[in-house]
Amino acid sequence: MRVGLFIPCYVDQFYPGAAIATLQLLEKLGVEVVYPANQTCCGQPMANSGFEHLTHGCNELFIKNFDGFDYIVAPSGSCVLHVRDHLHDDKQEDKAKDVRSRVYELTTFLTDVLKVKSLPAKFPHKVGMHQSCHGQRGLHISSMSELVAPSFSKPGSLLAMVEGIEIVPLNRIDECCGFGGTFCVAEEAVSAKMGKDRVDDHLEHGAEYITGVDMSCLMHMEGILKRKGSKVKVLHIAQILNGSPTP
What we know:
- The protein is α/β, with parallel strands linked by helices.
- The chain has two domains: 2-113, no CATH class; 126-242, Rossmann fold (3-Layer(aba) Sandwich).
- It contains 13 helices and eight strands.
- The strands form two sheets. A four-stranded parallel sheet has the order 2-1-3-4, with helices on both faces.
- Helix 12 (215-228) links the parallel strand 7 (209-212) and strand 8.
- It is globular and about 55 Å long.
């Protein structure tokens, strides 16, 4: 199995520890991982802002970088959903379609493709798990609480394999943090209030760490935590599953 490692630009620039943990975790699980060095932004910020017609260059480069891999894996649900829904190229649409079908968010890849049943990780801390909207409603990595249906959580099932971890209960298990990509810029006040409510739920239940599959959401909450003067930290789920908790 040969996997192309897709690292979103904001992870590369601000949270390289999440990228390194993803690489190490996949390699521990016996996967051959290749990082295409020429990769750049997938184009999601432009598309979210109404300028999808300007993402052709991003699409062409993404196809060039990731064509030919068995799978493409990224530690970001929102970027994966963007590629799955919006990667197109008029000149090579067949290739674009093939690449779209091979892109996976990390925890979905671990549960659905590798079918991981155990992990040699230890993390003796109280952890609040944030269910990101893109992953939940777009990629269906966990169930939505408003549905009358059996509940599931792919990230939750993986965290349950970590020795010593205590997942704290939340009042609203799948409420949006308010980040929403460019929403946090266009609607700053609403975004900040939503983020404060989300963070307060974790703090109320004694979380020492907040984790999730999207560093973007965690980045938003991290800013709120720092402004509160809180000692609670954020960690991408890959860092916990890999046993490398250093930010």
